[in-house]
Structure formats: structure tokens, C-alpha cells
Automatic annotation (TrEMBL):
Designated name of the protein: Ribbon-helix-helix protein, CopG family
Organism of derivation: Halosegnis rubeus
InterPro entries in alphabetical order: Arc_rbn_hlx_hlx, Ribbon_hlx_hlx
GO biological process: regulation of DNA-templated transcription
Domain of life according to the entry: Archaea
Length: 69
């Protein structure tokens, strides 16, 4: 069984995330956050330090795949 922890984000951001994930395969804000964090951690582990440009590239790829608006 996997243990979980709580991550707090501002309500206005949560509302924006809810709008962003409408029509995607993400069923909740938590799903999107887990996916993004997993992607960032994997990228970091594979290549060391994650630059702002690399982070933006990940976000752009997610946008192109329809996960982000």
C-alpha cells in the first residue's frame, strides 16, 4: 500500500488547474500534480540539475499533448 502526504496550493491555482484538466485524462488536481512531479523527478534523475528551460520544455510537451492549456 502506498502512503500519501498532503500538498497545499492556493485555491485560485486549484481552480485554474481544474479548468485546465477538463477534457483530459487527468481526473483530479492530484493526478496532474503526481504526473508533473514524477516527470520532473525522472528528468532530474536522468540528467542532473533541471534548468528553467528544461522545465518549460516539459510544460510545453504536456501542453502539446493536451494535458495543459
Amino acid at each position: 500500500m502506498t502512503d500519501y502526504t498532503t500538498v497545499s496550493i492556493p485555491k485560485d491555482l486549484a481552480e485554474r488547474v481544474d479548468e485546465t484538466i477538463e477534457g483530459t485524462s487527468f481526473s483530479s488536481t492530484s493526478d496532474l500534480v503526481r504526473f508533473l512531479l514524477r516527470s520532473i523527478v525522472i528528468q532530474h534523475q536522468q540528467g542532473g540539475e533541471l534548468t528553467e528551460a528544461e522545465f518549460q520544455e516539459i510544460a510545453d510537451q504536456l501542453h502539446d499533448l493536451g494535458y495543459l492549456r
